[in-house]
# Entry
Amino acid sequence: ESNFDGRLANLGLCEQLRQGAFDPLAAAAPLGGSGGRGGGAFTTCDAARWWSLLDVSKYVGTSPLRLSGPEATARPDFAVLSFYKIFGFPTGVGALVCRREAAELLRRHRGYFGGGTVSALSVDHDWEVLHGGGAGGSFDLAEALEDGSLNYQAILALQHGFDWLGQACLGRPMAAAGLHAGSIAEWFAGKLAALRHASGRSAARLYGRGAARGNGPVVAFNLLRDERGDAGEQPYVGYAEVEKLLGLEKIQLRTGCFCNTGACARQLGVDFADAKRYAAAGKVCGDDRDVIDGRPTGCVRISFGLSSVFEDALCCLRAIEKYFVAKTLGIAPRRAAAAVAPGLEIARLYIYPIKSCGAQEVTHEEGGWPLGPAGLAYDRMYAIVDEAGKNLRATKCSGLAKLQPRVCLRSRTLTISTTQAPGDDGVEALPDLVLPLGGIGSTNEPEADRCEREIRLCGRQCRAEVVACAQGQALDELEISRWLRR
# Structure
């Protein structure tokens, strides 16, 4: 089962491999590997057949797995699983299940060993005897593969996990858990696919549903905005935005590619050129760069399991409707909800002229505060960046909280002061830093000496203007940097 979209694999391939259906292809392939210590090159016999390894970590969380007997689900040579995927605890403990003939393959071609896995070895010859595998003795695979000390505490916790599993299933077979989780996932996927904005446009795009062999209890999707791009396409809602807003509703979900680059590339249409271009733009695994050039770099995944209930799916669906589905034409979802809420009154409005620095209360100066393309003018219009062009955040640079910016519409200036008292941390009192105000209406002002630079803001690459003068003085970027460092 794919951990990306729940698509079920053709488990019959394992048996076909064992029966030699693909052996001619293996025989034609070049022999590989040198084996290393205790190994030796792969033999012609080994290379002339295929060996199958089945990752069942996702599958066994909600489905029974039989590896032998007439009712076998699959007959792989190797199967690996993680107990964390079944119980949610403990992490870092899994299992390797293999057939006896496959165990011999591991013994002959394992090119390394660790402490506690050898009975004897030579320091000047390529020779060692693995633990449990002495001359003429039987080979103990478990002892030979246990490098170093085992995680005894985590292994002891497994018994509690199995006990919980028995109680949760209420004596029913594991197949019942799969039917339970699968029915919730099917209901959720159907409702999500049917979501429409007020304009009639789709609100979600699902991946991997309707697979030939079915799907596990996983729903992978991206949300779409109620807009049209230059080419007529609907813009995507970034998965980072979805994760953060649904997090406010105490909903936990996974975003990105889920360590499954192959499925992610296939479903999102990311080829080698795209991957190189994303990397050159600064995209790394685990960051918040969720949309590049209008294309998603990952998606949102919701997994249902043995402990899931229908209310979980309903709660998630309602949260998506609340934040991401437009109910009124021309009004964004969250603004639409606020427009009809009775008894609400706005007491104060604040803007943050410099991202991650102090707030400024919006007043009725000069008859009202202007609006910009994205809301109140000058809100988060400026950012302080490091040498690499990445914006500084208060979570990692707490000194930003001591900077108090203030926009003056009359003088068209941005004044930055510090709330740090003289003498704190050995720092002397600093005069205010006054910069010319750009942005809204700046075309009527004398051109400031600015240059453009690529910066990374909230994980996204964008172009920004570098302020390089203040109050008509020859205050360059280096001097501003020195002021901020002080």
Q: What stands out?
A: DSSP finds 14 helices and 21 strands in the chain. The radius of gyration is 30 Å.
